[in-house]
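[Meeting: bench + compute handoff]

Bench side (C.D.) handed over the final construct sequence. Compute side (W.E.) agreed to return the predicted structure before the next meeting so the bench team could plan truncations. Sequence as handed over:
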Amino acid sequence: MIVGRVHFADVVEHLAEAQRTLNREINPTVYSTSEFRDKLKANFLKTVLTGGKLFLIGDEKDVKDLGKQ
C-alpha cells in the first residue's frame, strides 16, 4: 500500500525489478492521503493496519498522523 502523491503506473514501473528478484507479482494499492483517511473512517483498512507491516518509507507514527489529519 502506498499513500501519497504518486501515479499507479510509476509505482508499477519501480516495482518491476523487485518482482523479477522475488520471482513473484507485487500488487500495489495506491491511495491519496484523502482517500486513505476516508478508508480509515469507514474501517476499511482496519484489518490491514492491525496486521504486520514492512515500512519502506515512513513508520507507524506517519500512519497515525495521517489518520489524525
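W.E. noted at the follow-up: The chain has a mean pLDDT of 87. C.D. will use this when planning the next construct.
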